[in-house]
């Protein structure tokens, strides 16, 4: 059986991009701004609508303020469509993202179903975001929040938290902060 070098390289590149996409979700959910910064090229653009639109590094600089009211962030990617042309690639990435937000009248939940429109570039052998835009296809809002982490069903379970308080930092050796 002969190996098709071009098909193998395509597979390697797509896996590198899928790893990048997953790393973004982890960085967002854990409020890991160092890791988030490492996923974008310095001149990249990020379009999160009214939240932030422009240079990705400006968006990342604003993340502590943006995420301050978010008690829970939980990004999940589903369908990933990637097309590659040399050192340039595009991706349409479907996502489900739950946000539990502290509001003036108590916490509320926002579940967004949408897509990321991505442009990736490989520079110095590494794939990173060159441009990322979020598209909301639907949203489900619950006010007040219906998230109940104190339910008896969860007794004794580890509970995820943003930042260094998340139990993953004590559990993993290879998947640490900024990694």
From TrEMBL:
**What top-level branch of life does the organism fall under?**
Bacteria
Cite the SnoaL-like domain residue spans from the record: 10-132
Q: InterPro entries under this entry?
A: NTF2-like_dom_sf (IPR032710), SnoaL-like (IPR037401)
What this protein is called in its record is: Nuclear transport factor 2 family protein
């Amino acid at each position: 059986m002969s190996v098709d070098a071009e098909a193998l390289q395509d597979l390697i590149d797509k896996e590198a991009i899928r790893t990048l996409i997953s790393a973004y979700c982890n960085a967002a959910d854990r409020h890991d701004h160092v890791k988030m910064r490492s996923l974008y090229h310095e001149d990249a653009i990020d379009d999160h609508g009214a939240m932030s639109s422009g240079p990705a590094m400006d968006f990342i600089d604003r993340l502590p303020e943006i995420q301050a009211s978010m008690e829970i962030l939980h990004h999940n990617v589903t369908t990933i469509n990637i097309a590659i042309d040399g050192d340039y690639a595009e991706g349409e990435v479907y996502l489900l993202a739950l946000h539990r937000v502290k509001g003036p009248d108590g916490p509320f939940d926002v579940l967004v179903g949408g897509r990321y429109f991505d442009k990736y570039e490989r520079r110095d052998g590494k794939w990173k975001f060159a441009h990322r835009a979020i598209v909301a296809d639907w949203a489900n809002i619950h006010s007040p929040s219906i998230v109940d982490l104190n339910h008896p069903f969860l007794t004794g379970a580890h509970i995820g938290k943003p930042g260094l308080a998340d139990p993953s930092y004590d559990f993993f050796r290879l998947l640490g902060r900024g990694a």
